[in-house]
Amino acid sequence: MDPAAADAIGAVVVAAANSAAGEAGRQAWTSLVGTVRRAFGRRTVPTSAGETALVTAADPSDAESLRDLVLAWAGEDPELLRELVRWESEHRGVLESRDDSVTNTISGNATIHGPVIQARDVSGTFNFGGPS
Fold first, then answer.
1. Could you say which of 95, 113, 121, 122 would form a disulfide bridge with 15 (CB–CB 3.0 to 4.6 Å)?
2. Residue (of 22, 4, 2, 8) closest to 87 by Cα position
């Protein structure tokens, strides 16, 4: 398997697990689990009890173990590899998109009487010189 493809698929598997509490992550994780379980059903090579348990549980907290297993299987199963590449391309953008930009605006007929703070992530306190 192409190392770049393995890295991309692996990153999105972990991103899906880490985002499984949100709607996009849940959908990506559910889709991945279905893909892995279909591949599991096609396997002609014996699987260990640990592999069976991992695929059966499909717990997002085991994402790294599942990722390693899936990538190993994809090296032996061209159909699974094609499915994973398709899955990764469908879900990558949603799971990796994160807008860190901030737009703070005071506009129109706003009348400001005193200090204004516009920010994104604030840690700590602000003091404008008055008693706290």
1. 95
2. 8
Determine how many CB atoms are found less than 10 A away from the CB of residue 126.
9
User: For 10-48, how does the pLDDT look when each residue is reduced to its tens digit (9 = 90+)?
Assistant: 888 888 888 776 788 888 888 988 988 888 888 877 788
Q: Given the structure tokens 């014996």, which residue do they identify?
A: 46
The token pair at 50 is 């640990």
85 near 70, Cβ under 8 Å? no
Q: What angle do CA 62, 29, 58 make, to 5 degrees?
A: 40
Backbone φ and ψ for 44, nearest 5 degrees, come out as -105, -10
Q: What is the pTM of this model?
A: 0.62
